[in-house]
Amino acid sequence: MTGTLEPYNINYFFTLIGIITSISAFYLFFTTIQRINDEMVLYKRKVLWSGSVGVGLAFWISNLSISLSIIDIMPADKIITHFVAVFTGSTLIVFFVLKAGINQFVRPLEYFLSGLFISIGLLLVLIAGIIILFSKDIVFMPLFFVITFLTTTGYAYSAFRFVLQLARESSNTVIGKWKAHGSTIMGITFSITPYLAFFSFLKSELITDLEPANAFLILLGLELAAVWLLNFMPDWFGESKRLEQTARLQENQQHYGSLFENNPDAVFSLNQSGFFTSVNKVVTKMTGYSEEELKKMSFFPLLGNDVRKKALYYFEKALKGRMDTYELAIVKKDDDPLYLLVSLMPITINEEVTGVYGIAKDITQSKKTENMIHYLAYHDELTGLPNRRYFVKRVRAHIKKHKNKTFAVLLLDFDRFKKINDIFGHAFGDKVIEAIAIRLKESIPEDSVVSRIGGDEFTVFIPSLPSVEYINTISQQLIAVFHKPLQIEKQECLLTTSIGVSVYPEHGESTDELLKNADIAMYHVKDHGTNNYCIYKPEMNNNTLDKIIMENDLKRAIDTREVIVYYQPKFDTKKNILIGFEALARWNHPELGLISPCEFIPIAEETGLIIELEKLVLEQACEQMKQWHEQGASSLLIAVNLSQRHFYQEDVLCRINGILEKSKLEARFLEIEITESMAMFNEKATITKLNDLRDRGIQISIDDFGTGYSSLSYLGKLPINRLKIDKSFILDICTNRKNEAIVKLMISMADHLSLSILAEGVESKEQIDLLQELGCIEVQGYYYCQPVPAEEAAKFLKADSVV
């Protein structure tokens, strides 16, 4: 088609598209207002502009669809020009209305001018679109235009009023309901308006075969009906809100009445003169006065002379707008005293205090409660034993009363309890503590007192001390008592105890000093094998001080990365190639130099620093191996040891995953080493964790194999890749036929279980040759290299010595 437009009836498909797009545009418009007014939404300006652009684009699509409904062909250049004009105009109008919606409250003049601006802007956009698309078929119809302008103006004011009302609403449920209704009516109205504009500016035969006036009246009727609905929507919305608020008010009144009447405490209100204006049933029951009697009296007759001044002070304080709570004694109608805990609150109406609300709780029985509180203050909640506060008070009282009498303090700490608590959880640990407490109470002398002073630490106060041998006897008995396992949840739990002993006044003249020295003696026992007792000696102070210093230095060393990683290479003796490294922690102390792992690893395990230490080793080892891979050693594995405490942490897999992701090392090149005893501990949990690691692609090896107590059937269940023969079997393998036979059996077992096997501690060529003969070709040890820093380990990364 060229030249002028040909007569064409309305294509209702495009009309439907225009209506749906228009409804969607208004829904997006209301959603944008809702987001802008949401206090949780940041970058409101960005939301404002993106919403304006989105709604403007939808309005352009709607306008274009309506235009396409009366024309069969649309040239591309006109569509582009139409887009620029209509989209820009629509976006600016939407931006203006959104800004007004943010303000929510506008003055009458602002409302009038805003509505006029919206109606004129909307008509200008429609006229611009008509001129662009139908420039050769323009026929101005003044009457139709005036009617269209008035109708559009009514539509604009009604729509703007509804927008402002909805913008003030805070309930998302209410907004969701009304924005759906509003979007539908406004979208339909907006879709009819272009047709009215067509009749005002185009030949009627382009639109319909009907008489122009008849067709226009039909559209005008539809438009007016929609505008009428839209005009009344704010009223309906307001009425709905009013009904909702009325229902909420009634509900609140019912809640207040329920709270007032059903409150277990006495609830009352007083006027400014102190007379009762309302009381609940509890007040009448407490005082003995009826409701009618109370409403004729003030609170003064209920008070004795000794408390009137106090009660008046708090009453006047409440009248000044301040809330407070205080204890008060009143006299009931039968002259019995009643002790109350009273809270007074001001009644504020229109920012003026008109009276006082009061809530009174009967505390007459509080003396009984005080006894219970006293008990709880001096007893351990879990075990019922006396606590640290009781122990200190009892010993101090004994010293004050018997200054020259010798007595002993025993401090017990249970070995391995922290591991059990970490692995099985605190609930299981609590049950272990309860069982320990029962066994201790049954085992101490009658005149002695056992207390739980925290965690798994207990004290035994022995007030009568005939001789030193008596201490030895009691300590040995307590150690022997725990040789028998505890029964916890059908599981046997074997614990041993380390006991430190201090004697008054030889080892201290105060409770704190006695406890401190008993603690030093107890740690001396732990440092020399546990499951024993020791009486304090002054020279132990130096060892304890050194240990405390070492603990503090180790924490700092981990934080400052004084702990570094050394690497010991592993070799395939058959191919004579390097296959990987084992990462080992070394502490380069700034004053003491290189500290042996034998010194700081036990401290790390005891204090819990082992988790952070092993995390540091993992991070450094994975980062270093990634660097070596990038240098060409792309097949090497890095092995890292995990302690039992770390292995059974719930987030251990997440921690390892995080380290692998950060270092970008593939999981298949990481090998986690656990000990044989760890593998045997808590079978179900161990296998679950190992499977999680294997599923991630991480390899698993059993370190120090042969030194534990694993069974062959259990070993077959473990999802592992490699066994590492402990160096104690390798040391004299060439001269000890029994060790040779044991190693041969281990190699054969690994072969039948389809596991790799590696020998640790290789120190001679003869050992390598014998291991090769027995079938073990993977080795590590001082024969090749002791653990060295990364710079020295790199010398093994030669092209001809790396897989």
UniProtKB/TrEMBL annotation:
Domain named EAL: residues: 547-801
Keywords of the record: Membrane, Transmembrane, Transmembrane helix
Ranges for domain GGDEF: 405-538
UniProt domain PAC: residue ranges: 324-375
InterPro entries from the UniProt entry: Biofilm_reg_signaling, EAL_dom, EAL_sf, GGDEF_dom, Nucleotide_cyclase, PAS, PAS-assoc_C, PAS-like_dom_sf
Residues annotated as transmembrane: 12-30, 51-73, 79-98, 110-134, 140-164, 185-202
One matching Pfam family: PAS_9
Highest taxon in the source lineage: Bacteria
The keyword Hydrolase is assigned to this record: no
Entry-linked PANTHER family: BIOFILM ARCHITECTURE MAINTENANCE PROTEIN MBAA (PTHR44757:SF2), DIGUANYLATE CYCLASE DGCP (PTHR44757)
Designated name of the protein: EAL domain-containing protein
